[in-house]
Automatic annotation (TrEMBL):
Gene Ontology molecular function: any one: magnesium ion binding
EC number: 2.7.4.16
Positions that bind Mg(2+) 4: D39, S54, D85
Entry keywords, A to Z: ATP-binding, Kinase, Magnesium, Metal-binding, Nucleotide-binding, Thiamine biosynthesis, Transferase
Highest taxon, organism lineage: Bacteria
InterPro entries: PurM-like_C_sf, PurM-like_N, PurM-like_N_sf, ThiL-like
Binding residues annotated for Mg(2+) 1, in chain numbering: T55, D56, D133
UniProt binding sites for ATP: Y115, G132, D133, R159, S246
Positions contributing to substrate binding: H63, E297, F350
Alphabetical list of SUPFAM superfamilies matching this protein: PurM C-terminal domain-like, PurM N-terminal domain-like
Protein known as: Thiamine-monophosphate kinase
Binding-site positions, Mg(2+) 2: D56, D85
Gene symbol of the encoding locus: thiL
Residues bound to Mg(2+) 3: D39, D85, D244
Source organism per UniProt: Chlorobium phaeovibrioides
C-alpha cells in the first residue's frame, strides 16, 4: 500500500478522505440536514427550528504561540472562532463543550486565565459553557471547543445558495488580524534576540504597540459577528449564502462559489481594508490588500444577497458591498483600481497542512 503524507493531501484533501469513510453514519441519521461541508453540521429536532453545531481545535505552535498570546485572550478567541461558525449559518449560538489537553508543567493559574477568557466571551454571546473533558498533554496545550446554536428553518444560510446577480457583502474590515500577527511576531523575534544575547529585555511593549492596537486586537481578540446576525434577523433578511472569513476573503469566497456553482467579480476599491493594517503594511513595506484577501482569521461574515433583499439592509454602514455573483464560467475575479482584472485563485490562500 502506498502511503501519502498529510502534508501532501493538504487539509481539504484529508477532510475529503475522512468524509468518504464516515459517510454511512450520515446516511443513517434521518434528522441530519447537513453533515460535512459547511461552517456547521445541521439537524432538525422539530419542525421550523434547526440546530447547528461546529467544533474547532487550537493547537499550541500550530494555531497559537503562548509567547505572543495571553492565556485569557486565547480562551476568548477559542470561543469566538466557534461562535463565528455558528453566526456563519445565520444562527444564534447557545451551548459550548470545551476539552483541553494540558502539559503538566503549565501553571493552574494559566488554565484559570484561559477559562476567564472563555467565560467573558461566552457571556458576551449568551453561550453557556456546559461541559468538556480534561487530559494531560505530552506536548503543548490543545484546546477543542464545540458550540451548538439554533435558527428558524427559513432563516438558515448555507454556502450553496449564491445566485448569479446577487450582491457580495462583507462585514467590518479585513487584513487587521494578519497585520497584528506580523507585529506580534516581530516583537517576539526582538525579544528572542535580547534573550540570546543575554541582555535584559526592557522594551516597553505596551507603549510601543499602542498605535497598532486596531490590528493586534483583531488578531488576539476577534469578535464573532453575532451583532450582524441579530441585525439580519431583526430586518427579516436571509442571505442567499454565507461563510465566516477564517481562511481569507479569496479562499472563503471560493468555498461559496464552489458550493453554489457560481463565479464572482470583486471590486478592489470596495474591499474594506483595516486602517491599522495599512499603517503596518507601510512600515513593513508589505501589502495590506494582500492581507485582506488572503490573510484570514478576521472572522468577519461574507455573504451574498439578492439586490431586492439588500435594499432592506443598505443603511448598515458596517456592511460593505464588494462585488457581484457571476456565472460559474467567469471564475473568481478581482477588478483592481486601474480596471485590470486579476484571477483571485492565483493568489496565495491558506492551507493548514502546508
Ligand atoms: P471552518 O474553516 O469553517 O472551521 P473546516 O475547513 O475546518 O471549516 O471544515 C470543513 C468541513 O469539514 C466542515 O463541515 C467540518 O465539519 C468538516 N471536517 C473537518 N475536519 C473533520 C474531521 N476530522 N472529521 C470529520 N469532519 C471534518
Ligand atoms: Mg467557518
Amino acid at each position: 500500500m502506498a502511503y501519502k503524507a498529510t502534508s501532501e493531501t493538504g487539509e481539504f484533501g484529508l477532510i475529503e478522505r475522512i468524509k468518504s469513510i464516515v459517510q454511512p453514519t450520515l446516511e443513517s441519521a434521518p434528522e441530519l440536514v447537513l453533515g460535512i461541508g459547511d461552517d456547521c453540521a445541521v439537524w432538525q429536532p422539530s419542525t421550523e427550528l434547526l440546530q447547528v453545531s461546529s467544533t474547532d481545535l487550537l493547537v499550541e505552535q500550530v494555531h497559537f504561540d503562548l509567547l505572543t498570546t495571553p492565556a485569557k485572550h486565547l480562551g476568548s478567541k477559542a470561543i469566538s472562532v466557534n461562535a463565528s461558525d455558528i453566526c456563519a449559518m445565520n444562527a444564534i449560538p447557545r451551548y459550548a463543550l470545551v476539552s483541553i489537553a494540558v502539559p503538566p508543567s503549565m501553571p493552574v493559574e494559566m488554565v484559570e486565565e484561559l477559562y476567564r477568557g472563555m467565560e467573558s466571551a461566552a457571556r458576551e454571546y449568551g453561550i453557556a459553557i456546559a461541559g468538556g473533558d480534561t487530559s494531560r498533554s505530552r506536548s503543548g496545550l490543545v484546546i477543542s471547543v464545540t458550540v451548538t446554536g439554533e435558527v428558524p428553518e427559513k432563516m438558515i444560510a448555507y454556502r450553496n445558495g449564491a445566485k448569479e446577480g446577487d450582491i457580495v457583502c462583507v462585514t467590518g474590515t479585513l487584513g487587521g488580524s494578519a497585520a497584528g500577527l506580523r507585529v506580534l511576531t516581530r516583537e517576539k523575534l526582538i525579544m528572542m534576540e535580547h534573550i540570546e544575547n543575554n541582555e535584559t529585555y526592557n522594551r516597553n511593549l505596551m507603549a510601543d504597540l499602542q498605535e497598532y492596537t486596531g490590528a493586534i486586537q483583531q488578531h488576539l481578540l476577534p469578535l464573532a459577528r453575532l451583532d450582524t446576525v441579530r441585525f439580519l434577523h431583526e430586518r427579516q433578511v436571509t442571505p442567499s449564502s454565507m461563510i465566516d472569513i477564517s481562511d481569507g476573503l479569496g479562499q472563503d469566497l471560493g468555498h461559496i462559489c464552489n458550493a453554489s456553482a457560481v463565479g464572482a467579480l470583486l471590486q478592489e476599491n470596495r474591499i474594506p481594508v483595516n486602517s491599522t493594517a495599512r499603517l503596518i503594511a507601510d512600515e513593513l513595506q508589505d501589502d495590506a490588500l494582500g492581507w485582506a484577501i488572503s490573510g484570514g482569521e478576521d472572522y468577519q461574515l461574507l455573504f451574498t444577497i439578492s439586490k431586492e433583499e439588500h435594499k432592506k439592509i443598505a443603511d448598515n454602514r458596517d456592511i460593505a458591498v464588494i462585488g457581484e455573483i457571476t456565472p460559474k464560467e467567469s471564475g473568481l475575479l478581482l477588478k483592481d483600481i486601474y480596471g485590470i482584472t486579476i484571477d483571485l485563485t492565483s493568489l496565495p490562500g491558506f492551507d493548514h497542512f502546508k
